[in-house]
Amino acid sequence: MGPTLCSLFCILAGEEPFTHQSFDGFKIDAKIALPTDGKVARVMILLGGSGAYDMDLDLTEASEDKKTKILWLKDLSEALAARGFAVIRYHKRPYQMSLLNQAIQREKRMPTSDEIDLGSRFIENPLQHFVDDAKSFAEYARKRYPEAKIHFLGASEGTHIALWAAHELGWISGVALVGFYALPLDSIMFEQTLHRDQMYFRHMDTDQDGSLTKRELHRGSKVGLALLQVFAAYDFDRDQQLSLEEYKAFFLRKFSDILPQIQAYRLQEAKYPSMLEVLKHATFQVAFFQGLWDNQTPTYNAYAMEVLDKYHWKKGFRFTYFPKLGHCLDPRKSPEDLFYTLIDPKALETLCKEADEFFK
Fold first, then answer.
1. How many percent of the chain have pLDDT more than 70?
2. Residue 47 falls within a domain, yes or no?
3. Contact present, 129 and 118 (Cβ < 8 Å)
4. Pick from 135, 189, 181: which is nearest to 288 by CA?
5. Is residue 261 included in any domain, yes or no?
6. Do both 175 and 200 map to the same domain?
7. Is pLDDT above 60 for 4?
8. What is the largest CA-CA distance in the chain?
9. pLDDT digit string (tens) for 129-178?
10. Do 206 and 351 reside in the same domain of the chain?
């Protein structure tokens, strides 16, 4: 069957849709953006963060108005292609599986035994599938462009996937990291749940007395209103205020809800080397791009790697920091702001320029 009108348009526009059969036979939809001159000397494979994301990494729901169209990987793909990279992005496996499930429902049929088997294996070990999918796309790129250098760019959870895949393959030329974290996922999630939310405590504590009254909570936006709903349960000393310890108890209770999933992920993660071990023994180039107002994967993670590389590993990693930008190099109102905005144009230009220069 020949290409559809849509695929012909995409190819003419410099972007080609394709379906890739991954390591286990599962079919994943993808796109490759091609350099304007058509010459492919470098390929960048994009890996998004946690969640069931599509190949564009649509963060619209995480914007303040839930309407601001944020297609993070798509914007990145276009900008990197303009710098001469061929750029591959693809649906993350859980998103592709959701599309498959929708198709099965539309067709009013039962899933095949192969489809059930693929789903069951994924549920048993999602992390291994994320890493092996990344490796499979890298192998596809290497076969399609045997003379080209292959790179990964990972964001958030994708930083771990990129580093593990590069470590296992052994022939990846470089890895770019946006929103890197050195710790295991359960540690960074604990920080996000407990430590990050102490910022809101300080913000709501307008009289700086170390406790939150109902009046202060009422002025504390969504966090304060949520605490008001359970005020009596967490006011352990019945003084009509929430101390910092009472406040932290609320968030630790929230964290406990996801402990079973975290425990399962911890077992999957334990099969891979730590980020420090991967970076210490890396045979590929690594570039870090970090927003200084990133409150999901805080800057100290990248800072620590810079010190280790400068004084111990001496690998020549590159570190670029962006003031007042958040987790996806997007402008934020303050370090406490959780809402996403469009990637900062100057940061996008800097990232692509440095990737172009560093990953020769």
1. 96
2. yes
3. no
4. 181
5. no
6. no
7. no
8. 73
9. 999 999 999 999 999 999 999 999 999 999 999 999 999 999 999 999 99
10. no
User: Structural domain of residue 338, as residue ranges?
Assistant: 5-182+274-358
* Token pair listed for 171: 């022939």
Residue type, 325: L
Question: 3-state DSSP call for residue 304?
Answer: helix
In a domain, 267, yes or no: no
CA–CA gap between residue 215 and residue 272 (Å, rounded): 48
Residues 110, 82 within the same domain: yes
CATH code, domain with 195: 1.10.238.10
Residue with tokens 């069951």: 120
Our count of domains for the chain comes to 2
Q: What is the pLDDT of residue 191?
A: 87
CA distance 67 to 181: 29
Question: Distance between CA 257 and CA 276 in Å, rounded?
Answer: 29
Establish if 263 belongs to a structural domain.
no
Give whole-number Cα distances, 159 to 52, 181, 206, 210, 286, in Å: 16, 8, 38, 37, 11
Listed in order, strand segments (DSSP E) in the chain are 15-21, 27-33, 42-47, 86-90, 149-155, 174-178, 211-213, 241-243, 285-291, 318-322
Task: For 262-313, write each residue's pLDDT tens digit.
Answer: 888 899 999 999 999 999 999 999 999 999 999 999 999 999 999 999 999 9
Q: Same structural domain for residues 98 and 18?
A: yes
Strand 285-291 vs strand 318-322: parallel, antiparallel, or unpaired? parallel
Task: Express each pLDDT in 68-98 by its tens digit.
Answer: 999 999 999 999 999 999 999 999 999 999 9
User: Which value, to the nearest 10 degrees, does the dihedral of the CA atoms of residues 186, 192, 193, 196 take?
Assistant: 150
Q: Which pLDDT belongs to residue 294?
A: 97
End-to-end distance of the chain based on CA atoms, in angstroms? 38
- pLDDT at 150 (0 to 100): 98
